[in-house]
Amino acid sequence: MTIVNRTLSEQAFQIIRERILSNRMPPLTLLRQEALAAELGISKIPLREALTRLEQYGLLRSSINRGYYVPPLTIAEAEEVFALRVKIEPEAAAQACLEASDDEIETAKTALAALEAISGVDPQQTVAFNRAFHLALIRPGNRQVTYLLVERLHVLAERYVHMHLEPAGRDARALREHRDLLAAWLARDAKNVSLQLTRHIVLTLHDLRQQLFENETIIKSNVPPRPND
Q1: Locate the HTH gntR-type domain: which residues (predicted)?
Q2: Do the beta carbons of residue 207 and residue 166 sit within 8 Å?
Q3: How far apart are CA 23 and CA 162, in angstroms?
């Protein structure tokens, strides 16, 4: 029975995650748990497990009065998440490239190959493969605290990475940057790894600032004016 519940929970997690990332559940959508459980054909227990996990991934938030809802994408959150990545991830990857074993090198190569294969084909899966590639670059050295921190930041960045890759040509540019980054990492050029990864993260944030500004402007322009008292 436990295995069945976990399977249902995983299926619910994947379905809701895809809806959020594809904007079928746009920001501020309030989830009606009873209706959602009925639609998915599952009980509330595996659904709650899925919703809890989605909240941990930053794709949902909960409050006592509102229940679960899709949080808005904001410039402030993007700034915070990507600024923290810049502080931690480039140095971690630079140190890791000096300590990578043959197996860890093959893992990084495989991760990039998988990302290249899915890029432009499945936007929802692309963000997951993107995270796997970045994490493969910091795994060597067995710095568990650093690894967990970077993994958590990537999870929080998932919707923003998805948004960043939406404009035409972005996925191709990202792949070029990833190839250059991996080349420096494989050469064990720690300084270049740090520079390449810092640039990659900063450029992504730069693009997101413009996208989020335009998005917030559209939202504000569609809000009807308040009637005069």
Answers
A1: 6-73
A2: no
A3: 10
Residue 146: phi and psi, rounded to 5, are -60, -45
Domains of the chain: 2-69 (1.10.10.10), 75-218 (1.20.120.530)
Give the tokens for residue 16: 């809701």
Per-residue pLDDT of 9-50, as tens digits, reads: 999 999 998 898 877 898 999 999 999 999 999 999 999 999
Question: Which residue reads 């790894």 in tokens?
Answer: 193
Q: Which amino acid is at 104?
A: E
Summarised one tens digit per residue, pLDDT across range 138-195 is 999 999 999 999 999 998 898 899 999 999 889 999 999 999 999 999 999 999 999 9
Q: Enumerate residues 6+ apart whose C-beta is below 8 A from 219.
A: none
Is the model's pTM score more than 0.90?
no
